[in-house]
Amino acid sequence: MTRVGFIGLGSQGGPMARRIVDEGYPLTIWARRAASAEPFADTAAKVARTPAELGEASDVVGICVVADADVEDVLLRPDGVLAGMAPGGLVAIHSTIHPDTCRRLAEAAGERGVAVIDAPVSGGGGAAAARGLLVMAGGAAEDVERARPVLETFANPLLHLGPLGSGQLAKLLNNFVFTAQVGLALDTFAFADRLGIDRAAAAAVLAGGSGGSRAAAILAASGFDTTGLRGAAALLEKDVRITLEVADAQSAAAPRALADLARGTLTTLTNPPPAVG
């Protein structure tokens, strides 16, 4: 079978890697912290000492770390994945990063005979564990098809959206709109309060009505606790920033209303509520 490597075993990547090994693929993992690999002790997964050792043991490598610099590090460092991976290998970048970073890394990988696709994801660890993760892929059709059997251990649907970078563009658009919708949902529930409508009742109406959104549903499911969203604020800020950078570079004006809502959301999430009493 295809030998698979995976780096990035957090709340999103961990369940993805677990699906891969549970489907019987020979899996090699690497993590900066040994504790991140401990949940795989009951599996057949092997733990590499370096990303290069992981690359040497893999035909396909998935990368699900946080930011552009993290992806570059695990791929390009002296003991990085590309230092060990043989020509003919394939790297799938699941992290949400700048499309230009994907293209730059693909050039570096191509010099070593390694192909790159971008395959960012949406849905969370629960969706990955249930084999229901949305995967947005960009890259050459033959490379996406080569990775498809591995990706479909956790993906449903897996969408091939075009050339390299297309998956990142789609994911950035998704996160940009979601960030705007969070602000809209917060304002909506505050408005419901002022109207004298119980928030839970308002959420039930939105869930079954045309005015609902994924953001409103997430807020309602949390009991209107924004702690989780506040914890994700740095990631949302990164994605909004990259979206606007890409829009500027392509002279594709971002919708002003969405941009204002997204910025307002980030301001709200990064400023804790005042202490009571």
Task: Quickly describe the structure.
GO terms for molecular function: NAD binding; NADP binding; oxidoreductase activity. With 277 residues, this protein is of the alpha/beta class.
Based on the structure given, which CATH architecture of the largest domain is correct? 3-Layer(aba) Sandwich
E-strand count: 9
How many domain units? Answer: 2
Give, in spatial order, the strands making up the sheet with the most strands.
Answer: 3-2-1-4-5-6
The Rg value, from CA coordinates, equals 20 Å
Largest sheet: 6 strands, parallel
| Contiguous runs where pLDDT drops below 50 for at least 5 residues | none
Task: Give the C-level CATH assignment of the largest domain.
Answer: Alpha Beta
Helical residues, percent:
40-55%
What's the CATH superfamily of the largest domain, by name?
A: NAD(P)-binding Rossmann-like Domain
Provide the CATH topology of the largest domain. Rossmann fold
Separation of termini? 62 Å
Order of helices and strands: EHEEHEHHEHEEHEHEHHHHHH
Average residue pLDDT: 96
Q: Report the structural category.
A: alpha/beta
What is the overall shape?
A: globular
What order do the helices and strands come in, and which of them pair?
Blueprint: E1 4-7, H1 13-22, E2 27-30, E3 46-47, H2 51-56, E4 60-63, H3 68-76, H4 81-84, E5 90-93, H5 99-110, E6 115-118, E7 121-122, H6 125-129, E8 133-137, H7 141-151, E9 155-160, H8 166-195, H9 199-208, H10 214-221, H11 227-231, H12 233-249, H13 256-270
Parallel strand pairs: 1-2, 1-4, 2-3, 4-5, 5-6, 8-9
Antiparallel strand pairs: 7-8
Helix pairs in contact: 8-10, 8-12, 8-13, 12-13
GO molecular function, one term: NADP binding
Pfam family, one: NAD_binding_2
Active site: 171
